[in-house]
Write a structure and sequence with these properties.
Layout (H helix, E strand, L loop, with lengths): L4 H4 L10 H14 L7 H5 L5 H12 L10 H14 L3 H6 L6 H18 L12 H13 L12 E4 L7 E4 L1 H7 L2 H9 L24 H9 L21 E2 L8 E2 L3 H11 L2 H6 L4 H8 L5 H6 L63 H4 L2
Antiparallel strand pairs: 1-2, 3-4
Helix pairs in contact: 2-4
This protein binds a DNA duplex (21 and 21 nucleotides) through helix 4 and helix 7.
Length: about 375
Amino acid sequence: MGRHSCCVKQKLRKGLWSPEEDEKLFNYITRFGVGCWSSVPKLAGLQRCGKSCRLRWINYLRPDLKRGMFSQQEEDLIISLHEVLGNRWAQIAAQLPGRTDNEIKNFWNSCLKKKLLKQGIDPNTHKPLTEAHVKEEKKITDTTPMQTPLSHGLPVPLTFPSSQGSTLLIDSNYYDGGLTEASREIFLNKPALDPLSYYDFPMGAAQSGFNLPMTQYQTSLKASDQSPFGPNSSYGFLSMPSLTNSDHGNVSVTEFSDNNSASKISSLLMNDQVKESSSNSSNMSNIYTGGGCHISSMMENAGFSWEGDNKFDPLFQFQVNATKSEDFKTSPWEEGQLQTHSSIDYTSFPLTALSEDLTGENFDVFQHI
DNA sequence: AATGGGTCCAACCGCCACATG
DNA sequence: TCATGTGGCGGTTGGACCCAT
């Protein structure tokens, strides 16, 4: 048990990822997608185990990740989901597009737990603490002042941007166990979203999310020189945008952690190609609103910037020209394994942002509560 | 300016489930 | 059925950062 065999075979790097490593992994995954994580390090030229690569991608490099603080809505949602699901962070994360289980777990442990305790609510049971508990916890919370004022007193109406305008009201009944066993079952049985779905587009099912099979996406990448990673492509890995989308599905509230971010992201978006193809500006907004975006444009012009991770910021100020296209013309996954569909132009395949899941079936569960 | 304690979070560890041979 | 490899998850931790003194 413990470390996978891939980690034991050779001496592998551990610890924080360098920008160069991030770049390698990002470039590799965006080109070829994920086939077998254990092979990724070798093929991407990384001295890491596959597991580490997977985590890095899921928790940090995925382009659809949100960055920045949790919105009040997200916060309330996490609390309500935790009451139902407990520490099933992956399932909770599945209800919060752009957030990772690790991120939510950290947020819970570092912030939400304390907030609930301060409210006199047991974070484990979500029921009022006994007086003894309160006294005990008071000692703790008194010595660990909150960084932000608690703003979600009860009851809290949670209104989700569902097409049906569902509202979840957290009130005393809720915390008294007002949820039915059936509701709980729905949560427990609901499959978690695949964190890799960004590159997993089934044909004809774009409306349900990023669900194009990797094989097809891969084909799109190598289909022609027009592809975002074609032989002539030169893209930057400057730094990643910190997307603090405080209101799902509304591009106007996409925030950035500093003044430079806006210019960075606008330069990301307002590249020549996007300008040309989106005189009506819909393409731009679609990138973040989930109306459908062009992944190729996103990738090709991704002057990504990890703005939220300030300590990395200066390190990401490097530009990488695409390596020789020959190196990437054929995905290692494709060779002899995967079918190609070169007649289809996937470079403009419409995407639906994960955030749109908030308006879709992912919130159906609340209809049952 | 130095420092020591607290906080946060990225990454690792340990385990389990599942697929495959 | 068993062994092995891999993906995935939740718990834990090391170190960077923050802040009060």
